[in-house]
Amino acid sequence: MVALALTNPAGRNRRIDRAGAWILRWLLIGIALAFLAVFLALPLVIVFTEALRQGWQAYATALTEPVALAAIRLTLLTAAIVVPINLAFGVVAAWAITKFDFRGKSLLITLIDLPFSVSPVISGLVFVLLFGLQGWFGPWLQEHDLKIIFAVPGIVLATLFVTFPFVARELIPIMQEQGTLEEEAAMVLGASGWQTFWRVTLPNIKWGLLYGLLLCNARAMGEFGAVSVVSGHIRGLTNTMPLHVEILYNEYNFVAAFAVASLLALLAIVTLILKSLLEWRLARDGQRGGGE
Length: 292
Hints:
mainly alpha; flat
């Protein structure tokens, strides 16, 4: 057998390569699991441990006090306004970009990507310079008794700016891959524009649309930078959940801060679960379409 091994160096090299690949694979898996444990699992454990440190009664009290409820309501209200607007814009923008050729198409794509390249704090500052008391439109707004900055409209505008790329950016690649053949066939058969959209386009993009809405909703509820600039930090009026967590933590009210933060953490966990399910569904539909 020794003589056989010596006379077959190629087989020995293959065994060494397989052993090295096996070690490298499990080393990479171990590094990834350690990274997830330190940067994902451990922070979540700390959040829920600190939130429940004084028991369920203190936890429930922190979430049901009037200021906390006001922050939760404002966060939900902002998401309820922003997400449908982003839905409409994302579908229209993706449809226009992928189905038609027109002047300014590249500019539109650039504008959609703009919030990804601009700091949320800077975007909030821009709204202050536009609609603040000393801003471009500030005197006119004050004259007509309209308040945007340090009020709910400003929070909605800031959140809308930082979240509007999500739906469009999820739909554009999907609709580009699908092409225009099905829509053209429907139009040839006499379908109107709305019939083509509802019966052909929308069924093909429904999972990508849900995926984009999910990400948009999560970002809307968790946005801090832009909202912090335009909100004014008025307790019970303009504080969203992330801002409320910051105020409680700065006041050394750690249990209440982590209690409210745990709601955001639960939102993140649910978002990850739904995101994984939607990715699995998209992959399955893609394989089914490829097989056909």
